[in-house]
Specification:
Strand content: 5-15%
Helix content: 40-55%
Number of helices: 20
Structural class: alpha/beta
Shape: globular
Largest sheet: 5 strands, parallel
CATH class of the largest domain: Alpha Beta
Bound molecules: adenosine-5'-diphosphate, magnesium ion
Distance between the termini: 42 Å
CATH topology of the largest domain: Rossmann fold
Strand order of the largest sheet: 6-7-8-5-9
Length: 474
């Protein structure tokens, strides 16, 4: 058997897996791809610079032992970093360590020092008339790391946040951009980082501000002719946290001023933390030069929490509020509210409130009622038609082909998958599924479901189809 990057790396993985926690293995080793083997140097591709630093900090010894076992004493490891701006379908940029180079700043983009007309510094947070020298951080201490529960969906963002909090301005995740959908914990995590920094480094100036408020302050400063004071104020901050930067879309004046502030802070080793509801590549109407800054550091996504994380968030909430609730209820809520932690918490708070007003136990019926109110707006019915459409699109055929009588293997498989998903995601009977997918009988549908189950276990490619399609339905 010939030695390839793949075979070497697979052997390393076997060894590594035996020596670390399964969760750590999953987080830090499964995403790595072996790329090249030349002489005794193995190149591996890692998802980000953060990933690389984490591996170097925590697993360098283990990697060394594993690699030496495979390639001898001269073994070398080369990291190839997939750049953060590969969201979407672009060709991945790669960067090979140790050529880490932050990209040169072209002259017209350099930060131009701005002279203040007014020597006394204006703090836009100060209410006129009240003297206030210290900059208040505007942080909410109840959003901290202790109550930001960890799960697969937030592990990378949370670890990156921790790393930044330990060494603000001293890691390559600058800026740290946390992005993800509504109610997934961006604001919470952003505060948690700030709170942790204040705790560790009380002398540093930390400031949390929403992009909206930042914009208002900026507009105000232009009106009052104090734009330069505004800029100077922000240039004094050690750790600047701006929440919901997507709000800056289309606001070129504010973007411009933020660009200057950002450059100044970055060049002076200050930390910038941003949140957004989109990945940089999907941001609309944000200037290119600003977007390129966002990509300098790390973009870490908060994804939809999985079932276990949802349960632990609910349990934790109940525990902190000193409320007991049966597992059945917790399970019900966690199973039905999937894509928004704020709604998850809202439902449980509403249940707690109802039970304490009425002084009675929370029943499953009450839970169903409450949950229904929360999910009504977001629920999307998956129909058999929709399933056929999605499966046909995925295999690049039309629905008529999928339903046709042909026995061509790839078409049969597509049809069977459509039947399988119809069984899984709708309440329709086997007979009804069969009649809607090309007029087949219930036995054919049953056979299709069994075949899909079998193939899922034995055929890797087929399993991938199922995974891809499942994502499209959930
Ligand atoms: P976003 O800013 O992304 O819209 P928030 O930060 O406001 O979301 O979070 C919504 C709610 O969910 C908050 O009450 C927050 O405390 C809670 N939350 C989010 N993620 C977690 C988590 N991992 N652990 C505990 N609570 C969380
Ligand atoms: Mg928010």
């Amino acid at each position: 058997m010939s030695v390839t990057a793949n075979s070497v790396w697979n052997n390393c993985l076997d060894f590594i897996q035996d020596n670390i926690q399964p969760q750590a293995f999953k987080t830090w080793f499964e995403p790595i791809k072996p790329v090249k083997l030349s002489d005794s140097a193995l190149s591996i591709q890692v998802p980000s610079k953060f990933f690389y630093e984490w591996l170097e900090e925590h697993y360098v010894k283990l990697l060394k032992v594993a690699l030496t076992k495979e390639l001898g004493d001269n073994a070398k490891l080369v990291y190839i970093i997939k750049m953060e701006n590969t969201y979407g379908n672009r060709e991945p940029f790669t960067e090979q360590i140790p050529s880490a180079n932050r990209g040169n700043v072209s002259p017209q983009e350099m930060d131009v020092p701005i002279k203040s007309k007014n020597p006394e510094l204006k703090n836009p947070f100060v209410i006129p008339g009240i003297r206030n020298i210290k900059i208040e951080s505007q942080l909410n201490p109840s959003y901290n790391f202790d109550n930001f529960l960890e799960g697969d969906s937030n592990r990378l963002a949370r670890s990156a946040g921790m790393a930044v909090a330990n060494k603000p301005g001293g890691t390559s995740f600058n800026p740290l951009l946390i992005f993800g959908g509504v109610g997934l914990g961006k604001t919470h995590l952003a505060h948690a980082i700030g709170v942790e920094i204040k705790d560790k480094y009380p002398e540093r100036t930390v400031l949390y501000i929403s992009a909206e408020k930042f914009t208002q302050q900026y507009i105000e400063s232009v009106k009052k002719n104090t734009r330069n004071d505004f800029i100077h104020f922000y240039q004094l901050i050690d750790v600047l946290i701006i929440d919901d930067v997507q709000f800056l879309s289309g606001k070129s004046g504010t973007q411009d001023v933020f660009f200057h502030i950002f450059n100044h802070l970055h060049q002076n080793g200050k930390q910038v933390i941003l949140t957004s509801d989109k990945a940089p590549v999907d941001m609309q109407d944000i200037e290119q030069r600003l977007l390129s800054r966002f990509k300098w550091g790390l973009s870490a996504e908060l994804q939809n929490p999985d079932y276990e994380t949802r349960v632990s968030i609910l349990r934790n909430k109940l525990y902190r509020d000193g409320v007991e609730m049966s597992d059945e209820i917790v399970d019900y809520v966690a199973k039905h509210i999937k894509t928004n932690i704020r709604e998850l918490e809202g439902a449980i708070i509403s249940l707690i409130a109802q039970s304490s007003f009425n002084k009675k136990e929370v029943t499953l019926e009450l839970a169903q009622e409450v949950v229904e109110k929360f999910v009504k707006n977001t629920k999307r019915e998956v129909s058999i038609d929709y399933i056929q459409k999605v499966v046909s699109d995925y295999f690049e055929m039309d629905v008529a082909t999928l339903q046709s009588k042909t026995r061509k293997r790839h078409i049969v498989q597509a049809r069977q998958l459509a039947m399988f998903f119809a069984k899984k995601f709708t309440k329709a009977s086997l007979a009804s599924i069969g009649s809607q997918i090309g007029k087949r009988d219930h036995a054919t549908v049953l056979h299709a479901c069994k075949t899909v189950d079998n193939l899922a276990e034995t055929d890797k490619q087929f399993r991938k189809y199922i995974e891809d399609l499942t994502k499209k339905f959930s």
